[in-house]
Hints:
Blueprint: E1 2-7, E2 13-19, E3 24-28, H1 42-45, E4 50-54, H2 71-85, E5 90-95, H3 97-108, E6 113-119, H4 124-129, H5 133-138, H6 140-146, H7 150-155, H8 159-169, H9 179-189, H10 194-203, H11 205-214, E7 224-229, H12 239-244, E8 250-255, H13 262-265, H14 267-279
Parallel strand pairs: 3-4, 3-5, 5-6, 6-7, 7-8
Antiparallel strand pairs: 1-2, 2-4
Helix pairs in contact: 2-3, 6-10
Amino acid sequence: MIRSVVRVRDGVRIHYRRMGKGPGMVLLHGWPQTGHMWRKVMPALAERFDVVAPDLRGYGDSDRPRAGYDKRTMAADIAEVIGALGAGPVVLVGHDRGARVAHRFALDHPALLTHLVLLDIAPTYDIFERLDQRSVRRVWHWFFHQVPDLPEALTAGREEVYLRLSYRGMAFNPAAIEEEAIQEYLRCYRQAGAMRAGFDDYRATPIDLEHDAADRGKKVGVPTLVLWGESRMAQAADMLGVWKERCERLEGFAVPDCGHFIPEEQPAVVIDAILKFLAR
């Protein structure tokens, strides 16, 4: 595996992992993780693809600027990484926050994309449009992270307590995120400014909603696969239904015995689903 960095337009260094040969594929992680979350699926996918797993701006071993956490800017980072590595057009796979970046990427950079895979999210705009008491309890951390300065103050020196709560609470099988992986995540999130950067990702929600509202009539044109964990309350009552409003060609299913962290909890299902999707 190659590990290196690409410097994007505003000088931010984006760290990435790269493995394999063939058509380009980019894997985008979520919170509270890094590109390390793809460790169980990347080798198998690299047998057929040139796979790149970046750390999004603010995460992992990438730089942590004080701005640029709206999904349009983060998607532009990925477009520059793809261009610098000569990897495009690509299959783009995103989980959690990375899937939100991937959705925006599909709208803003369609020429760089062949297929889109989104893991365990509903569209940002639709989540906020349909919020009720039940769904607010499910995504409470989204609102907590947006409070200015407070999350940083409460988690400083207690990163492990907070992050382990997330890994346990959102997984059907917490043991699937092994201790080695937790220690790698903790190494990254204990770095100066790392927790703030993750919270700033969520604090960009008002900008993201503005961009998403402006593009309500715009659909993803490439074939799209949506997967979500069957053993966790989905972000929308009808995941395929809500995504059909956003995508021209869509398929997907709930992954059995799985919570939020699909590539770690059910890596074989993810590999099989992606390869079958791309073969059609």
